[in-house]
Every structure is written in structure tokens, then in C-alpha cells.
Automatic annotation (TrEMBL):
Alphabetic keyword roster: DNA-binding, Transcription, Transcription regulation
Listed SUPFAM superfamilies: Periplasmic binding protein-like II (SSF53850), Winged helix' DNA-binding domain (SSF46785)
Keyword tRNA-binding attached: no
Membership in a protein family: Belongs to the LysR transcriptional regulatory family.
InterPro entries xrefs: LysR_HTH_N, LysR_subst-bd, WH-like_DNA-bd_sf, WH_DNA-bd_sf
Name this polypeptide is given: LysR family transcriptional regulator
HTH lysR-type domain: residues covered: 6-64
Length: 320
């Protein structure tokens, strides 16, 4: 049985006719022709197989007990529909509701709070749901509607996901202060030959770093594989080895309180950070967030997220 054979338009016309006691009165209120209201009455009665109104001369009508009962049930349905539509229009026109953000960016805490606070200043009706996820989970969330927007790295895109580039992330070597290589301005992958390596072994990131070593002909001496940036930084700070990363937080210390240095690796390909959302027109909140995000990444502050070779005349390397 198809429960949607009667449209809300037909049910609304029936309700107005009962409330007005007149086909012409309902037609005037709805700004339609009387014949459209009369046809709606006929469709509703035919669907339920019973007389719902008694028609009199001059197009006056009186609802039967069944008609009055049905109109009473229809009224909250129409009111709920109207409320849903108003809320939907508000979502497209204002900054309100919940924004579901997925991120596969190891140091997203270094920049996302700044951007979300900017949005929150524009509207106190905003809520945020942030989920750390990998590349594929982020994109799957966009396609199934559990995420509104996602930040992730890599070029392996799913059909139906639209992306905008945020930043190219060149690799750098993370070293404990005092390491023999930590005083260099720049390094090459060959400098990491025979150096113990702590590997951030996450989807995309792990394969990316292994690929860099393979491309440069260096065999890494992997002493630990871990799944969080902070554990990588803490192991490096404790002297377990070096690491190859792409983004850095705004601190020179590990969780363990050890000093760290970030030295650019000049012979490795960059990792691409993008924002993505499901194809099609987004609601206004999603578009505003994405625009604000990209505006921040085009600002000088975003450059703090990467280790860069010193400019001419500048001594020392960038630090994490």
C-alpha cells in the first residue's frame, strides 16, 4: 500500500474547505480556483472510500463526523510541515544548526578552533560536531550525510565528493633538540639513512612516508609505528629516533616536555590538504565555514603549520 498517494496540497485544500464551510471560501484563502478545491475534496473522499462532506446549494459544505475527525488529524500535520519548511529556509539563510566536521589532519587542533570561534562570534545558535577520521571514512561520511564537510589529505577521491585545495604540505624531519642533524637548515632523505625512524602509520600518511623513502632510494630503520602525532612527537623527544611529518603544531615541546626541531626535507613531494563536501549546493552554514577555512589558509598564519627553508639572509630553520 502506498501511504503517499494524497499530497499535502490535497489534504490542505480539504482542511480549508472544512474550516471555511465553503468551497469558494477555501479557494479564496488558498488563492486557487474553486474547481481545484472541489477536485481535492473528490480525491480525498475517493481515497478513503467514504463521504467526508455534505454538499449544499451555492457550494456550501458541511463536514460529516468522519470528515471533522480527518480534518482534525490533518491540521497538526500541515502545521508540522510548515514548521519544517520554515526551519529549512532558516538553515539556508542563517548561521544556525549543527555543523558536522570530519578531519584527517593530524594537527587540526592547531587551526580549527580559531576558525570555529570566528563563526561562533557571528551566531550563538551554532553547534559543532568534530570527528577525527581517515581519508575514506571522511569521504564516506560526506556521501551518507553524517558529515557536512571534511578536511583530508591525499588524491584518492570517491565519486560524488567535491574538493577545494587548502595547502601543499612539504615533508620535514622532526628531531630531538641536540640531535646531530638538528642544527641543519635543511635536510635530504639521504641524511636519514641509518637514522632510527618513528613512523606515523595512518592511512595515507604511512604509505606517503614509505613512498618518499622508496622514491629517494633510502631504506628507513623503522623502530616504532604509532597512530597519533602526539605519540610520534613524544617518542622523538625522548630520543627514540626521527620522524617525517607534514604539519606541525604551534609548540616546540612534546607532551613529555622535550624540545623538538623541525627541519625541512627539500627532496620530498608534498602532501595535498583539501576540504571536501558532497556534490551539489550546500546549506549556507557549510559554505560560510568552507569560505572562512580557505580564507584562513590563505593568510600568513597558515604558514606556521609547515617547516620552510630559511629565507635568504635568515639564519636557522623553522621550528615546530
Amino acid at each position: 500500500m502506498d501511504d503517499l498517494r494524497l499530497s499535502l496540497r490535497l489534504l490542505r485544500a480539504f482542511m480549508f474547505a472544512v474550516d471555511n464551510g465553503s468551497i469558494t471560501g477555501a479557494a479564496t484563502a488558498l488563492n486557487v480556483a474553486p474547481s481545484a478545491v472541489a477536485a481535492a475534496l473528490g480525491r480525498v473522499e475517493a481515497e478513503f472510500g467514504t463521504s467526508l462532506v455534505v454538499r449544499a446549494r451555492a457550494r456550501g459544505i458541511t463536514a460529516t463526523p468522519a470528515g471533522r475527525a480527518l480534518a482534525a488529524r490533518i491540521r497538526p500535520l500541515i502545521e508540522d510541515y510548515s514548521n519544517v519548511m520554515q526551519e529549512g529556509y532558516a538553515l539556508s539563510q542563517g548561521l544556525r544548526g549543527t555543523l558536522n566536521i570530519g578531519y584527517y589532519a593530524p594537527v587540526a587542533p592547531a587551526f580549527l578552533p580559531i576558525i570555529l570561534q570566528k563563526l561562533q562570534k557571528q551566531s550563538l545558535d551554532l553547534k559543532f560536531n568534530l570527528q577525527e577520521c581517515d581519508n575514506k571514512t571522511a569521504q564516506s561520511g560526506l556521501l551518507d550525510g553524517t558529515l557536512d564537510i571534511a578536511l583530508f589529505a591525499g588524491d584518492d577521491l570517491l565519486t560524488g565528493v567535491e574538493t577545494r585545495p587548502l595547502m601543499d604540505l612539504p615533508p620535514y624531519a622532526l628531531l630531538p633538540e641536540g640531535h646531530d642533524l638538528a642544527t641543519a637548515d635543511v635536510l635530504q632523505f639521504s641524511d636519514l639513512n641509518n637514522v632510527p625512524l618513528v613512523l606515523l602509520d595512518l592511512p595515507v600518511a604511512g604509505a606517503y612516508v614509505r613512498g618518499l623513502f622508496r622514491t629517494t632510494g633510502v631504506t628507513p630503520d623503522i623502530v616504532a609505528t604509532v597512530s597519533s602525532v602526539e605519540m610520534v612527537r613524544s617518542l622523538v623527544g625522548a630520543g627514540m629516533g626521527a620522524a617525517v611529518l607534514n604539519m606541525r603544531p604551534r609548540t616546540t615541546l612534546s607532551y613529555g616536555g622535550d624540545a623538538l626541531r623541525a627541519i625541512p626535507l627539500i627532496d620530498g613531494a608534498s602532501l595535498n590538504l583539501v576540504s571536501g563536501r558532497a556534490a551539489g549546493a550546500p546549506r549556507r552554514l557549510v559554505q560560510v565555514f568552507q569560505d572562512t577555512l580557505h580564507s584562513w589558509f590563505n593568510s600568513p598564519a597558515a604558514l606556521d603549520l609547515i617547516a620552510q627553508p630559511p629565507r635568504p639572509g635568515q639564519a636557522g630553520s623553522d621550528q615546530p
